[in-house]
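Quiz preparation item.
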């Protein structure tokens, strides 16, 4: 006999309809014959009965709050006996989806492991959106797991890894501790949440699948079957001889289809391009400026003429200078996660560094954004942009990017625009690129007439941006 998944009281009659299913008082659960599937997964005699089980397990008052893809993700996860992964682009609500899934499965002890910067966000999400779980959920961070393992491990029903790509290095202390934790709770459901594209890094994906399923073999076996690489010769000073190493390990296109078929059973993948109608429109405006004074003037004008704005910088000193100029709150890397959360005031402007708002903060309160400085890495800027363009933001977002003609800032803006297209096209480099690419509209302001000109821009073709700048160079 196999133990069937937890169901609500209303589904008692549904289970009674299935031949061979009965209530086992000793296990306090419904049980059925072994034919019911691997790991106790319920496989009713009709498809409609299966659909009724999946949908009715989701608490009624949450169904209207979930988007269609979130309902599909939960229904798919309910079919899985012991592990699943929600692979959502950042901003599409994977945290709330995971919490409702825990309610649907009726877990009584859930352990959530998150990055330190996101821990406070999870606590607030539970209190405000799923208060029924507050007595059944334990939230910790990867750093705390390394130092002090959680108590009552044997009673854990479900382990959730938020940003599960954190365990990609199997030799790291963090990854070993997470593996030990899961081994001590062998019956616990394992749920991974990530925004990193599945095609980004084979070893990254394998590490998560190995923790979830353990059915893909060792990294060597996974690499040999699903990957290809370049073999590079180099001189090893320790061995005092030439040797070789694997470089540029990537998925084998001829076998990737087989991996995708296997992943369908325990990975639900949602890209922003699939749900673009649910995301706010994003407009990026290139603002021609000449000096630092021009940037300060632009910031003051935008704050005076619109709702509260958010100013992002690369350097902490610049954030402090602008914050002092505007007499506004600032967020830097030294600001605690809790302080960052409470710093968001819908009635006041905010100044922050790009690195400090990359994760664990909701900036949908701001409709107007100014990049006072640019980061050397386009990925950091894309990640910061993604904090504004999110599922729960009903307002259009406008990002102003000061551009000084013939300077480094102009090159960085063009590089950023083309990088956004390259990121989504290649499926590598940053999980927010899909959101931005799906909703982005690029405009440039004429320095003389102040008129806005829409850029007929395909980010996948970086030359398009350069052609536009060359064509309108005289007007800058």
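Solution:
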């Amino acid at each position: 006999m196999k133990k069937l998944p937890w169901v609500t009281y209303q589904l008692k009659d549904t289970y009674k309809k299935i031949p061979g299913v009965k209530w086992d008082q000793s296990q306090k659960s419904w049980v059925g014959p072994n034919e019911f599937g691997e790991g106790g997964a319920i496989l009713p005699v009709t498809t409609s009965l299966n659909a009724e089980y999946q949908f009715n397990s989701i608490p009624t008052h949450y169904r209207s709050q979930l988007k269609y893809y979130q309902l599909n993700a939960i229904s798919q996860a309910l079919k899985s006996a012991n592990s699943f992964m929600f692979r959502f682009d950042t901003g599409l609500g994977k945290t709330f989806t995971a919490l409702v899934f825990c309610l649907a499965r009726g877990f009584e002890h859930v352990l959530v492991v998150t990055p330190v910067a996101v821990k406070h966000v999870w606590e607030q999400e539970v209190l405000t959106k799923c208060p029924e779980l507050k007595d059944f959920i334990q939230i910790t961070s990867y750093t705390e797991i390394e130092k002090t393992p959680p108590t009552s491990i044997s009673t854990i029903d479900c382990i959730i890894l938020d940003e599960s790509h954190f365990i990609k290095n199997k030799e790291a202390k963090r990854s070993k501790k997470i593996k030990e934790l899961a081994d001590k709770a062998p019956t616990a459901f394992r749920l991974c949440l990530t925004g990193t594209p599945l095609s980004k890094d084979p070893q990254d994906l394998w590490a998560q699948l190995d923790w979830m399923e353990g059915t893909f073999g060792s990294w060597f076996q996974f690499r040999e079957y699903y990957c290809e690489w370049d073999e590079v010769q180099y001189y090893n000073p320790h061995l005092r001889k030439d040797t070789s190493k694997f470089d540029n390990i990537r998925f084998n296109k001829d076998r990737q289809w087989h991996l995708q078929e296997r992943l369908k059973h325990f990975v639900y993948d949602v890209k922003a391009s699939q749900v673009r109608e649910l995301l706010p429109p994003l407009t990026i405006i290139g603002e021609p400026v000449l000096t630092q004074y021009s940037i300060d003037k632009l910031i003051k004008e935008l704050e005076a003429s619109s709702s509260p704005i958010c100013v992002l910088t690369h350097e902490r000193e610049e954030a402090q200078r602008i914050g002092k100029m505007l007499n506004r709150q600032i967020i830097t890397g030294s600001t605690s996660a809790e302080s960052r959360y409470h710093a968001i005031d819908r009635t006041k402007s905010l100044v922050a560094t790009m690195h400090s708002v990359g994760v664990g903060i909701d900036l949908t309160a701001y409709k107007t954004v100014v990049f006072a400085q640019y980061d050397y890495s386009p990925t950091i800027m894309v990640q910061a942009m993604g904090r504004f363009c999110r599922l729960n933001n009903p307002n259009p977002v406008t990002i102003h990017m000061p551009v000084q003609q013939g300077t480094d800032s102009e090159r960085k803006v063009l590089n950023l625009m083309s990088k956004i297209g390259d990121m989504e096209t290649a499926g590598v480099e940053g999980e927010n690129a899909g959101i931005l690419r799906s909703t982005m509209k690029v405009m440039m302001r004429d320095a003389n007439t102040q008129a806005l000109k829409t850029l007929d821009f395909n980010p996948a073709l970086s030359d398009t941006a350069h052609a536009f700048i060359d064509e309108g160079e005289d007007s800058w």
